[in-house]
Amino acid sequence: MMRVPLVYRERPIFGFDLGTRTAKMIQLRPSGKTMEVMGYGYAQFPDDAIVEGIVVDPQEIVKAIKPLLKKTTYGQITATRVAASLPVAKVFTRVLELPPMNPADLGQAVRLEAEQYIPVPLPDLYIDYETIEAGAERNEVLMVAAPRAIVDSYIKLFDLLGLEVALVDSSMAATTRAIVASTQLGKPTLVADIGSTSIDLTVHDKVIRLTDTVPLGGDSLTQQLVKDLGVGREQANEIKYKFGLGPSGLQPKVMASLGVPLKKMCDEMRRVMKFYQDRGAQKRKIEAIIVGGGSASMPGFLEYMAAEINVPVVLADPWMGLDMKHVEPVSKYDAPMYTSAIGLARLEGKL
User: Fold this and answer.
1) Which of 120, 146, 200, 300 is an S-S bond match for 246, by CB 3.0 to 4.6 Å?
2) What phi, psi does 121 have (nearest 5°)?
């Protein structure tokens, strides 16, 4: 979305995924046909440091992140340039169908479309675009726009951290990039990234076709267990990740507690799929769902989703194919949280 001049191409980058209360980082290095993991880790910060996507208390985040930059949890991050992600709920993404035109006129055409579709004044936005498919009668152009207030707050944060920004991207674009790199998406696929407070949904059909965000995430499930089972938050998380919906003595109670929010999650995924299938230019059917994010590793969750939506569901594995010889293997519970950061780090050598 925002890029620096290519003269910096030889300098390495690392992926930096800033969530609502957690920052995830990872540095990759190309090695033959694969990429080596040089270092990774995460840091937590107060959830009031970011409001509506804007970093309002950068010093709190700096305090949490600086120690991690000096001594990464696993391996070492040596790069000082970042590829960072923006919350998908705050980023406007749309595939435009435009007639063939002179490249010099394309920018103005995209801005006219943005003015029509985006409920934010154009001066308050950064807008980027690229042609993803050129035809004799029409071109498909991917347009991405983000509020200047959010992007500028990120730039200020990275300035305070002494880091240079190489690129700012949508977290969902980064997540999809990581999944595409580890999975052959040869058919229309719904990518669902389950975060702590929301689910980012993307339809990938050769390229990103549609994005949406549902304000329902892993925290909702934890809070429901706390309320219904009368346990503390830590114990609720342990129940969620250790037992989940799988066979256990707790299964009836967990199912009774989580049935409503889980069904709502599936209903929202079904809604996005139907919207694309009914209104998409190709009217192609979604044939698979790939799920990432922390709650995706909850036992029995994927099986429940597949039965509820009646579409094959698989767990995203963005670590597949990455060489871990320099670092300790990531735990199965932490692995999903790095998806966006990996997608950003995979831009190494391309910026």
Assistant:
1) 300
2) -55, 135
Tens digit of each residue's pLDDT (9 = 90 or more) over 9-67: 468 999 999 988 899 999 999 988 889 999 999 999 998 999 999 999 999 999 999 99
The predicted model scores a pTM of: 0.79
Q: Which long-range contacts (CB under 8 A, 24 or more apart) does 133-139 make?
A: 133/206, 133/207, 134/100, 135/100, 136/100, 137/99, 137/100, 138/97, 138/98, 138/99, 138/100, 139/97, 139/98, 139/99, 139/100, 139/101
Task: Give me the residues paired with residue 95 across strands.
Answer: 142
Domain ranges of the chain: 2-89+149-183+321-345, 91-146, 199-315
Partners of 55 in the β-ladder: 50
Domain spanning 199-315: CATH 3.40.630.40: no
The single-letter DSSP state of residue 38 is: E
CB 132 within 8 A of CB 107: no
